[in-house]
């Protein structure tokens, strides 16, 4: 009798307990079919979708959810991704040239060798993302946040990085020729041996940043802050240094 009663309780518990459904691939199949067929789909749920090599050129994906999606090698030239959520996505070798990514979230993405040339990425969050050897030439990242992001060996020539927060990001060996860093925060950032000739860095905060061997000639550092920064062997020849704050910056063998 006890065994029968226990079995009945177990049976009833199974009836009333909801089944646990994995949420790893929570994308909407209809939305995936729409975008892979070349149709606009604002607000699409593509989270966790396999979009390797997909051609999404020019599509309107405003506010789309792409969390955890695999966009390796995908083409998103001129795509509209304003306010889209791309957290934890795989973007290796993806192409975002001239794409619109304003107010988008790219936290924790894996995007080595991706191309963002001329993209509009204002107020975008790229924190903790891996952008190793990616290309952001002439992209607009004004007012963006990229805390602790990896930009090693990345191209930012003529890009706009003004009014942003790039604290503790790794820019070592990157190219920032004539880039605009004005009014941005680079506290603790690694800018070792960057090619930043012609930089616009008025009022930029480089507190505790690493700028050893950096090429910074013919740049504008008016009112910039270098408190506790490492500038050993940096080349600042011909740069504008009006009201620059050096504090306890280490400038051994720096060239002015």
Major beta sheet summary = none
String of helices and strands: HH
How many strand units?
Answer: 0
Please tell me what the overall shape is. Answer: elongated
**Cα distance spanning the termini:** 93 Å
Q: Indicate the percent of residues in helices.
A: under 10%
Tally of separate helices: 2
Round the Cα radius of gyration to an integer and report it: 23 Å
Mean pLDDT: 92
What does this structure look like?
It is elongated, with a radius of gyration of 23 Å. Mean pLDDT is 92; it is low at 1-24. The chain is mostly loops and 256 residues long. It contains 2 helices and no strands. It has helices at residues 2-16, 29-36.
Describe this protein with a few key phrases.
2 helices; little secondary structure; 256 residues; single chain
How do the strands and helices of this protein lay out in sequence?
Blueprint: H1 2-16, H2 29-36
Question: Gist?
Answer:
With 256 residues, this protein is largely without helices or strands. It has helices at residues 2-16, 29-36.
